[in-house]
Amino acid sequence: MSNTRRTSTKISATERMRTAREQAERADRVRRRVVVGAASAAVLALAAGVAFAVGGSSGSGSADAAASGPLVTPANAGGPDGTVITYGKADAPHTLEVYEDFRCPYCEQLETTTGRTVQQLADAGTYKIEYHLATFLDKNLGGKGSRTALAAVGAALNEGVDKFKQFHDVLYANQPDEKSDGFGDVNHLLDLAGQVPGLKTDAFVKAVQDGTYAPWAAKVNEAFNSSDVTGTPTVKLDGKKLDVLSNGKAATPEQFTAMVKQVTG
Q1: Per-10-residue mean pLDDT for the chain, 265 residues long?
Q2: Could you list the residue range(s) of the whole structural domain that residue 114 is in?
Q3: Among 49, 81, 158, 168, who pairs with 13 as Cys (CB 3.0-4.6 Å)?
């Protein structure tokens, strides 16, 4: 399916998602995540292309034998328990927090529309980016693509922050339909890694094949679950939430730049 057709399908589902979410909030007065049965979560996600978190556990850990192995934190990971990935200059005056799930179609829309501008502003020293990654769509949609991709991203981060960022961008540029589980195939992930020059070292390939960073991916997702963020993509600049997704459409580079200027002056 082409990107254009896939984006159209996602946008058409937005109003159904919004209505379902508002009704649930009014009926149940939820504060953050609502603990629901896996079946109902899957139905909601499949019907509406949902890209917001439901349930207290988001599909990491028990379903993957590798996730129960020893915790290995990638080099270059930071934040509490090594669950945050920072891109940009450490002394940047501002911090942009980005919350994403690799199977999230709205994250793909934002990254492929405005991701280059987001990076350029970081490269220019306007802010540093802190990535907070999640795997809740594995639970909502079934499969293991989010956590398998995140574990592979850990292997890329171990090779270097720049390698992580390039691989991150390649994954979004080649995101399968969210209801398929294309990222659950490590061989497919390794094929995509071939698009990042110098990434496929022997150590990287072995780490992806062995699921070395699956326990770390579970830890990263736990940190997401402990945050006050209930949906992806969520973007905050110095703690202020930016309206990067409106009516199912990602902010344009110009709109994003204007929002950044409003916060940074």
Answers
A1: 33 46 43 33 37 40 60 97 97 98 97 98 98 96 97 98 98 92 97 98 98 98 96 97 95 98 95
A2: 3-264
A3: 49
